[in-house]
Design goal:
Layout (H helix, E strand, L loop, with lengths): L9 H7 L3 H21 L3 H13 L1 H16 L3 H4 L5 H24 L2 H20 L10 H18 L3 H8 L6 H25 L5 H24 L5 H21 L1
C-alpha cells in the first residue's frame, strides 16, 4: 500500500493500516489512563500520550487524545461554571486558542520519531515538577497569563498536553480548590476544542481518527468511572507519586527508544 507522506494525508493511511492487536493494545493503554485519571484527577493525556505516540504515531495520537479529553471535560461544564473566574482563566484560554495552530503546524510537519520524543520529554519535565511539588511563585499578572497561554496553546497543538503548565500556575493562586477545578475544566474543554478544530483544518482529523477515538472511548471513560470509585481506597498523595514515577519511567524508555 502506497503511503502518502504529505502532512495532510498521513493520518489517513496510518489509522487504517493498524493491526487489530495494535488497536487492542492502544485500548488497554487508554483504559489504564482512564483509571489513573479517575483516581488522581489529573492528566489522562499525560498518561496515555507517550505510549500511544509510540504505538500509533504522534499524528494519530494527538487528535485522538484531544477528542477523548474534550468529551471527558464536557459533562463537568454545567457543574463548575458558577465557580469559574474568567478574569484568571480567560486571558490564558484566549491566548492558547491563538497559538494552537502553531503547535499543529509543528505536529503536521515534524518528523514522527522526533515528535514522539518531544511528547515523552514534556511528560518527564512536568512529572518531575509535579513530583517535586514545584509551584509558580510569582503574581498572577495579565502578561504572565498571556505568555502562559501562548506556551500552553502551542503545546496542545503539538503534543495534546497543554494542561500541566496551567495547573502549576493556578495552584500558586489563593483561589479555593473548587474555583481552580472549574478554571481547569473550562480550560481543558476550550483548548481541546481549539486543538481539534486546528487539526481538522489541517486535514489531520478524518473518519479513521474518529473511529479510533470511538474505539478508545469506552475503555477510557469506563476506567475513569472505576478510578473515581477506587479513589477512597488509595492514599491519594502516595498514589500520585507512584503514577508520576511510572510516567517518568515509561516516557524515559520512549525517549531513548
Amino acid at each position: 500500500m502506497r503511503r502518502d507522506s504529505s502532512p495532510a494525508k498521513r493520518s489517513r493511511w496510518t489509522v487504517d493500516s493498524f493491526a487489530p492487536e495494535t488497536i487492542a493494545l492502544a485500548a488497554v493503554v487508554a483504559a489504564f489512563a482512564g483509571v489513573i485519571r479517575g483516581i488522581t484527577g489529573f492528566g489522562g493525556a499525560m498518561v496515555m500520550s507517550p505510549p500511544l505516540a509510540l504505538i500509533l504515531g504522534p499524528l494519530v495520537t494527538v487528535p485522538a487524545v484531544l477528542l477523548l479529553e474534550g468529551v471527558a471535560a464536557a459533562p463537568m461544564l454545567s457543574e463548575t461554571r458558577r465557580f469559574v473566574r474568567w478574569r484568571v482563566i480567560g486571558p490564558i484560554l484566549a491566548m492558547a486558542m491563538v497559538t494552537v495552530p502553531i503547535g499543529t503546524y509543528i505536529l503536521v510537519r515534524a518528523d514522527p520519531p522526533t515528535m514522539r520524543r518531544v511528547i515523552a520529554a514534556v511528560v518527564i519535565v512536568f512529572s518531575l515538577l509535579l513530583l517535586g511539588g514545584w509551584r509558580y511563585a510569582g503574581a498572577q499578572r495579565l502578561g504572565t497569563s498571556i505568555g502562559l497561554g501562548a506556551l500552553s496553546g502551542g503545546m496542545v497543538g503539538a503534543t495534546s498536553m497543554g494542561g500541566p503548565p496551567v495547573v502549576l500556575y493556578l495552584l500558586a493562586g489563593s483561589d479555593p480548590i473548587e474555583v481552580t477545578r472549574a478554571n481547569l475544566t473550562f480550560f481543558v474543554a476550550g483548548i481541546s476544542l481549539a486543538g481539534v478544530l486546528a487539526l481538522w483544518m489541517n486535514g489531520v482529523i478524518d473518519a479513521g481518527v474518529l473511529r479510533l477515538a470511538l474505539v478508545l472511548a469506552p475503555g477510557y471513560y469506563t476506567g475513569m468511572v472505576a478510578g473515581s470509585r477506587l479513589f477512597a481506597r488509595f492514599n491519594d498523595r502516595r498514589f500520585r507519586q507512584l503514577t508520576l514515577f511510572l510516567m517518568i519511567a515509561v516516557s524515559a524508555g520512549i525517549l531513548v527508544a
